[in-house]
Design a protein that fits this description.
Helix content is 77%, strand content 0%. With 101 residues, the protein is mainly α. InterPro entries: Cyt-C_aa3_sf, Cyt_c_oxidase_su4_bac-aa3.
């Protein structure tokens, strides 16, 4: 009953863990979406060179990670995406040279 309730005695560690996990997923998702949209905007809408766009977005990703105090896994992810972008851009560049474009 209501009289049995004592304020502040409930164990909320699971609730806190769930909320912390939700916030981490939200932060990661927001940053990844922002970095992706920034790269696509710079490369296609603004017309910057793909490599300059990739380098700029990687720098923005690292700075955003520092500002939001992300763990090392964020920087590994940004580095991995940078390498993936280099490989994809290099393959496209090779095909364009091979096809005479």
């Amino acid at each position: 009953m209501a009289a049995d309730h004592v304020r502040g005695e409930m164990d909320i560690s699971q609730h806190k863990s769930t909320f912390d996990g939700f916030m981490a997923v939200s932060t990661w998702g927001s940053l990844l979406t922002g970095v992706t949209v920034l790269y696509l905007t710079l490369a296609f809408a603004v017309g910057m060179d793909w490599l300059a766009s990739l380098i700029g977005v990687a720098i923005v990703g690292v700075i955003a990670g520092l500002v939001l105090q992300m763990k090392m896994s964020w920087y590994v992810t940004v580095g991995g995406l940078f390498v993936f972008g280099l490989v994809c851009g290099g393959v496209v560049q090779l095909f364009s040279l091979a096809l005479g474009g």
